[in-house]
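Students often ask why inverse folding is considered easier than folding. One informal answer: many sequences map to the same fold, so there is more than one right answer. In these notes we will look at a single instance of the problem. The structure comes first.
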């Protein structure tokens, strides 16, 4: 068994153990309401945290240059290269 298979097996066993512990707490202890509240909070906080990160990224990233401006820059560079080539040909 290689390292990846060992890690995969460990993850699988830990996940199954987590499912069993979660189910046991949810159905057979007095902590079920707290567990549901924590689960709901973590799920909502995770989704809203991701949305906040996306919003922050959109708010702080400068907008890209318009295509027309990029095309003009490319044309100018091509003209410079052509001018240099003509100078080299004359020499």
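Output (designed amino acids):
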């Amino acid at each position: 068994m290689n390292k990846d298979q060992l890690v995969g097996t460990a993850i699988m066993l830990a996940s199954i153990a987590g499912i069993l512990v979660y189910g046991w707490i949810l159905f057979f202890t007095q902590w079920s309401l707290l567990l549901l509240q924590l689960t709901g909070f973590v799920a909502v906080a995770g989704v809203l945290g991701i949305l906040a990160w996306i919003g922050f990224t959109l708010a702080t990233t400068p907008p890209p240059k318009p295509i027309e401006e990029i095309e003009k820059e490319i044309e100018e560079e091509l003209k410079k290269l052509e001018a240099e080539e003509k100078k080299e040909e004359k020499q």
